[in-house]
Structure formats: structure tokens, C-alpha cells
């Protein structure tokens, strides 16, 4: 059964429409990546899915009883606050020490339980956030640019961990990423967003779609084009990405 189904979704902040007519779905066990320039509504889409942002039109349906783990884009922990990884993980959920250790194992950092949050490296911190999101054994994991601030090796290894999590737990993953080259290999499906769904499909189909190329250019150099986005392609919400790619 489909985990998340988004139909004709629009999100508006005041008079600013950031998402319009977005249709997308996530099936069990899939890894789906959302790419798109800054401000293209990626975070707004995730927030609409978890119910933190109210759609101005359309709707989001979740499979009944769906458990979601969410790794936010940024989380600031005051470096002067003495808080251990274990305390941090137990702040929001009633979980045992054993469950914390298991979640840290799944996130690839089994030995961090007693460490101070302020002493973790960027990569370790992100793994702890991942562990916290895994603690309730979610059916769907949402990651909002979870590798921000990590170097290329750190983020490649983080995505390998995500694939291992999917293998071991079978949970589906919906993630936002700017690292196109890494994402392309780790994803079953890519959705290219720019206020609307520009194109979507398997990484190979999306990479060769004219809409995607208009946004990101070709090859891995396209990762840079992301930040120098010129949106000059024609908007056609009914375009079939399969046909467009041919
Ligand atoms: N709570 C809010 N109130 C008003 N405007 C908002 C709010 N949240 C986001 N926006 C605006 O909506 C647009 C889309 O923001 P969103 O965070 O969804 O984009 P994004 O694709 O995730 O961007 P980035 O890649 O920079 O993280 C931006 O122009 C942003 O300024």
C-alpha cells in the first residue's frame, strides 16, 4: 500500500505561492530523492507531508498508522549545554537505553551513547540525528539535506548508511539533497522540483530530461549550476517525463 500520496498540492505563505499542483507518492521500501534549486519548495513539501505546513490546496494522504522519522535540515544544540547523546535521544521519546544503542548501531555509530553532543564531529552529529529518527522504527524516513556541512567522503558514507538502513529495516526514504552525483546512484527515483514537479523518474530518465538539464546542466558539473539556476524552460504541468526524456 502506498505510504504517502500527495495530490494537487499547493502551499502558499501569504501571497507567495511556493508549491503548486504537486502530485507525488512514495511506495514501501523506495528511496526517493527530491532535487531542486534553493527556495524551490523542497522543505515545504516535506513539512506538508508531516503536517507542519498546511496546504492551501490539494491534500496529503498517509497510510493509516504510518510511522515517520524526520531528520530536519538544521538543528542547533547549544555547545555550552552539557547533554549526552543518550539524554538527547531520550528527550522526545520514552525509549530505553537499549533502544538508543540499537538505533545508534543502525546509524553506524554504536559507540557514541555516552559522548557529549558538543564534542561530536559534523558527521557524527548527523548520524545521531539519523539514530534519533530511527528509534521508533519508522516505515518512512524523511531527510532534509542531512549531509549539509559534511565533506564528500562523509556524505558518501552517510548515503551508504541510508542504503544499509533501507536494506536492514525495509523502511522507505524520502530525502532532499543537493549532491546530485551521490544521490543519483543511491536513489530509485528522483523528483525534480521547482515550485512544481519539473520531471521525475529513475535517475537515468531524470538526468536526460530536458527540464532537468535546463535546471542543472549536464554531468556532475550540473551540481554547480544548481546554485546559478536559470529557469528558462517552458512550464508544462502535463508533460510526460518519459516522453520528454526521449
Ligand atoms: N514559514 C515560512 N513563511 C514564509 N515564507 C516561507 C516559510 N518557509 C519557507 N518560506 C519561503 O518559501 C520558499 C520555499 O522555501 P523552502 O524552504 O520550501 O525551499 P527549499 O527548496 O527547501 O530551499 P533550500 O534549498 O534553500 O533549503 C522560499 O522562498 C522561502 O523563503
Automatic annotation (TrEMBL):
- Entries under SMART domains matching the protein: AAA
Q: What domain of life does the UniProt record list for this protein's source?
A: Bacteria
Listed Pfam families: ABC_tran
A GO BP annotation: zinc ion transport
Please list every transmembrane segment annotated in the UniProt record, as residue ranges.
none
Annotated ABC transporter domain residues: 4-219
Q: Which UniProt keywords apply?
A: ATP-binding, Cell membrane, Ion transport, Membrane, Nucleotide-binding, Translocase, Transport, Zinc, Zinc transport
Q: Which GO terms describe its molecular function?
A: ATP binding; ATP hydrolysis activity
User: Which species does this protein come from?
Assistant: Ruegeria atlantica
Give the Gene3D superfamilies listed for this entry.
P-loop containing nucleotide triphosphate hydrolases
Question: Which InterPro entries does its entry note?
Answer: AAA+_ATPase, ABC_transporter-like_ATP-bd, ABC_transporter-like_CS, Metal_Ion_Import_ABC, P-loop_NTPase
Q: What is this protein called?
A: ATP-binding cassette domain-containing protein
Amino acid at each position: 500500500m502506498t505510504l504517502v500520496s500527495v495530490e494537487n498540492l499547493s502551499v502558499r505563505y501569504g501571497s507567495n505561492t511556493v508549491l503548486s499542483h504537486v502530485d507525488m507518492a512514495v511506495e514501501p521500501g523506495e528511496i526517493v530523492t527530491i532535487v531542486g534549486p534553493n527556495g524551490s519548495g523542497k522543505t515545504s513539501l516535506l513539512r506538508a507531508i508531516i503536517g507542519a505546513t498546511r496546504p492551501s490546496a490539494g491534500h496529503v494522504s498517509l497510510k493509516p498508522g504510518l510511522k515517520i522519522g524526520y531528520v530536519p535540515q538544521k538543528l542547533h544544540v547549544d555547545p555550552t549545554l552539557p547533554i549526552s547523546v543518550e539524554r538527547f535521544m531520550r528527550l522526545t521519546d520514552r525509549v530505553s537505553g537499549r533502544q538508543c544503542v540499537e538505533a545508534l548501531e543502525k546509524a553506524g555509530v554504536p559507540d557514541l551513547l555516552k559522548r557529549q553532543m558538543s564534542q561530536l564531529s559534523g558527521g557524527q552529529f548527523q548520524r545521531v540525528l539519523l539514530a534519533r529518527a530511527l528509534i521508533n522504527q519508522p516505515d518512512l524516513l524523511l531527510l532534509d539535506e542531512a549531509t549539509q556541512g559534511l565533506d564528500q567522503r562523509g556524505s558518501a558514507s552517510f548515503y551508504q548508511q541510508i542504503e544499509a538502513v533501507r536494506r536492514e529495516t525495509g523502511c522507505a526514504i524520502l530525502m532532499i539533497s543537493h549532491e546530485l552525483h551521490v544521490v543519483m546512484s543511491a536513489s530509485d527515483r528522483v523528483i525534480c522540483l521547482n515550485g512544481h514537479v519539473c520531471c521525475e523518474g529513475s535517475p537515468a530518465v531524470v538526468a536526460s530530461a530536458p527540464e532537468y538539464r535546463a535546471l542543472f546542466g549536464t554531468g556532475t558539473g550540473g551540481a554547480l549550476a544548481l546554485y546559478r539556476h536559470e529557469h528558462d524552460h517552458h512550464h508544462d504541468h502535463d508533460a510526460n517525463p518519459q516522453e520528454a526524456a526521449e
